[in-house]
């Protein structure tokens, strides 16, 4: 086991370097970099009568000022030197500092996590709490009217984009046209600090309801159908027929024999789904409900060419994704002892 884990950890290094190298190379050819954007902002500030960082208003941005900007952002060094400096910092988990927000990348990620965690965790838990029992019920009643009706409902929910559903919820319940039942922005009210503990909980749930509903509806179909198909596959196997022939009740057969084997695909994907809940918040959902999370941070960083944030978040999320894949493999072996690490290496 330990040799397998060590091999996987060692394989993470070239994967990380490959992702960072490809992104770094692409960045070198993308127009409108941070220096160009800073020059544009300076010229716009001067044309509006402001000095723009203390620069003279009666002249344009001269070559000396451009060189100062390049030095400020580190672009006075050759690309290869900047590349190895970046790898050295990332090896020490130093993600750098944002060009435009004047904060470390770590502090930016930490400040945006509450929003992404709130949406992601609620979506994750509600999806599994509803989809797994529903998938089991559909497998037991396969082909019935209940099975057909619930399949139609979850597939319709899957077909509706979360952003479109969010707009519909705002129109219906956010004061758009009908009822003003839920707030339109933020996770808490302005007076949240003055509320009692119960009031804070209710206020938080009041704010998070619409974003979570918009995010969770489209997630039911995948987990529900995966659960149903896994149970159907196990129910048709020989050991279930043998258990029934021995006189065991359907409940005992289902929960003692089928349940553990059928949940194997879900358990294997559980770590990835759980960790993904923190970092896969919908950009459109966050924008629609005015929630400042990791999705919005990533989008704004790409638009502003805030390369430390882009590369830093990419490095962190890639590392977490690789670690999660390793944990998923370990869960696979833990759940099913028949699986050996040698088989995973093939």
UniProtKB/TrEMBL annotation:
Gene3D superfamilies (UniProt xref)? MetI-like (1.10.3720.10)
* CDD domains (UniProt xref): TM_PBP2
Record's bilayer topology term: Multi-pass membrane protein
Q: Does the keyword Cytoplasm apply?
A: no
Transmembrane residues, as ranges? 9-30, 119-140, 152-182, 204-227, 262-289, 309-335
Would the keyword NAD be found if you checked this record's keyword annotation?
no
Q: Matching SUPFAM superfamilies, A to Z?
A: MetI-like
One GO CC term of this entry?
Answer: plasma membrane
Listed GO biological process terms: microcin transport; transmembrane transport
Q: What's the short name of a Pfam family annotated to this entry?
A: BPD_transp_1
Against PROSITE patterns, the record matches this protein to:
ABC_TM1
Tell where it localizes: Cell membrane
- Per UniProt, residues of the ABC transmembrane type-1 domain are 113-328
**Highest rank taxon of the organism:** Bacteria
**PANTHER family recorded:** INNER MEMBRANE ABC TRANSPORTER (PTHR30465), INNER MEMBRANE ABC TRANSPORTER PERMEASE PROTEIN YEJB (PTHR30465:SF66)
The UniProt similarity line reads:
Belongs to the binding-protein-dependent transport system permease family.
What is this protein identified as?
Answer: Microcin ABC transporter permease
Organism (species): Caballeronia zhejiangensis
Organism classification, top ranks? Bacteria, Pseudomonadati, Pseudomonadota, Betaproteobacteria, Burkholderiales
